[in-house]
Amino acid sequence: MGFFSFFSKEKKETLDKGLSKTKESVFGKIARAIAGKSKVDDEVLDNLEEVLITSDVGVETTLTIIKRIEERVARDKYVNTDELNRILRDEIASLLTENNTADTEGYEIPEGKKPYVIMVVGVNGVGKTTTIGKLAYQFKKAGKTVYLGAADTFRAAAVEQLCIWGDRVGVPVVKQQMGSDPASVAYDTLSSAVAGNADVVIIDTAGRLHNKIGLMNELTKIKNVMKKVMPDAPHEVLLVLDGSTGQNAFEQAKQFTKATEVTAMAITKLDGTAKGGVVIGISDQFKIPVKYIGLGEGMEDLQAFNKKEFVDSLFGESK
């Protein structure tokens, strides 16, 4: 018990540190928005709306939050500015709870899914390959056998980077020559994993937003070829987004959710940015579970996303 409570404390410290820039930025803006005010009035709400939008929460999600706060203020008649942080925290926590599935440990594998096949999508530069490496590490740490598939055959750097991660974590990487058919790599990877009685297969894919039709056709072909080996593969399509890009992450999410059936998201690079509010907006707008968040370069710094812990880190523990 002691070990797990210690690990939980370490995880919380990593989360707090990773979100510190966002927290400082948001609270600095809120402090300026309510300066000299004793109660929450229309001017305070207008200022708060601007704070949330400029914190990359997104326009639609911001309007939803402001409407909820307006309803609270109208219902409670008088709300002072000291209460605003608690109300904002409560409404964001409610929003995240309503728009996502229940929290899990993230690295759990459903019964009867062996190997569990994860196809990873996202544009180049978002931390896709690094996320795959960290995922492989977490699964291996949990005692699972993992295979990686280098199906981004258009960039030599992508294959090389995946191989480096494979060596670092100690898991096999299935690859072919540059320019090979990505679906062929996925087929070989899944076939090898089945023969090797693996628990998890993670497939990297090309990160080119060349056009939606081309992307859709390529990802559909990879999925169809894998189904020849395992009819219900892939079990998860994980979209990786760079949290530090703010509104660009929204646009990428739009493109990929149109191009393929995304079932989960990972939002990376939150430790180096004040744009952590993007997690709230993306979770709300796309109704797709944010399953992982990236909080640093270390192997342990990819965390399973926990809504309560996230809100607690941004706004302080609930009373």
What descriptive keywords fit this protein?
single chain, 319 residues, alpha/beta, Four Helix Bundle (Hemerythrin (Met), subunit A), Rossmann fold, 2 domains, 8-stranded mixed beta sheet, 53% helix, 12% strand, disordered N terminus
Radius of gyration: 21 Å
CATH topology (fold) name of the largest domain:
Rossmann fold
The class by helix and strand makeup works out as alpha/beta
Strand residue percentage: 5-15%
CATH class of the largest domain: Alpha Beta
Helix fraction bin: 40-55%
CATH architecture tag of the largest domain: 3-Layer(aba) Sandwich
**How can the largest sheet be summarized?**
8 strands, mixed
The strand order across the widest sheet is 3-2-4-1-5-6-7-8
Give a brief outline of the structure.
The protein has 319 residues and is an alpha/beta fold. It has helices spanning 2-18, 20-33, 42-54, 59-76, 84-98, 128-141, 156-169, 182-195, 212-229, 247-259, 278-286, 307-315; strands at residues 116-121, 146-150, 173-174, 200-204, 236-242, 264-268, 290-294, 302-304.
